[in-house]
Amino acid sequence: MKLEAESYLKSGSNELRVLEYRVGGRSFGINILKVCKIIKNLQCFISPPEAHPSVTGMFKDMDKVIPVIDLAHFLGLPSDKSQESKRKVLVTEFFSITNGFWVDRVDWIHHFHWEDVIDAQGVLKGFDQKYVIGIVKPTEDRMILMLDYETIILDLCPNLRSKDINRSALTSVKGSGKRILISEDSPSVRNMLETEFSELGFDVVSTSDGKEALDRIEADGNFDLVISDVEMPQMDGLALTCAIRNSDKFRELPVIVYSSIGDIGMKSRANFLKANAHITKLNVEELLKKVEELTN
Question: What region does 47 belong to: left with phi over 0, alpha with psi -120 to 50, or beta?
Fold first, then answer.
């Protein structure tokens, strides 16, 4: 089963389509822009030795060998034996990395706008949880939990947090006296960016959604650069870029779209909205070079 994700998203329209699936008796969702395909019967599935206990194996699809993560195990949920015959693998791509996620079943695709997404970090503030990042309601009596898939992969592959950066080539990055606004709903990615740019001397202001970012820009306005994720509650990064470019006062403010979705379609939409760059997440060296170019 293949998903034609590109056809629905118009640049700056703040749209979201969520693929609903079930794991351990609970409903979860994922942006279909992250999903390449859904597979039922895996070919040449093997279990690697000494892998993380949630990585149950890997399989070959076309020219790629893809690791498979058991979401129920990773999230500490009971395996639903009644769904074994319906079990499928969601093949995803983000961070320019392909992974598979075992799920009990796939239910439906729902159409929302990002302003419909409830910020789970705010709702669950104070509770010890890190993987539920948003909540959507397809009906008044149902909720779907949106997971922070970026943090899941970073926790499974901690080496991705510290990719080698040629810092000798970045000695001319001068952050002193410059202000950067970072808009990113994933706490792990947001903290990484805050640390990186603070160490370079930038004054960093962070928000967890595009609406909050736009409010800060309109209230303050004294920013040299905006770095924005795409997938965020209330207002996504493309809608934020569109609002900045349509503003008489702030239309010249440089914007870098920093998204885990690195496909050509997303780059084209960012370019259409006149973002200064689209950079795939974890390409920190490329990001720093672009920040140097735009702020020096």
Answer: beta
pLDDT in tens, 133-150: 999 999 999 999 999 999
**Residue 254: CB partners within 8 Å, gap ≥ 6?**
224, 225, 226, 276, 294, 295
pLDDT tens digits, 175-213: 888 999 999 999 889 999 999 899 889 999 999 999 999
Fold of 15-158: OB fold (Dihydrolipoamide Acetyltransferase, E2P) (2.40.50)
Sheet holding 203-207, edge to edge: 203-207, 179-183, 225-228, 255-259, 277-280
pTM of structure = 0.88
Query: What are the residue boundaries of the structural domains of the chain, listed by start?
Result: 15-158, 164-295
* DSSP strand pairing (277-280 vs 88-94): unpaired
Residue bearing tokens 């996620």: 101
CA-CA-CA-CA torsion sign (18, 76, 1, 260): positive
CATH no., domain 164-295:
3.40.50.2300
* Nearest CA-CA partner of 231 in 277, 266, 197: 266
* Rounded-to-integer distance, Cα 281 and Cα 253, Å: 21
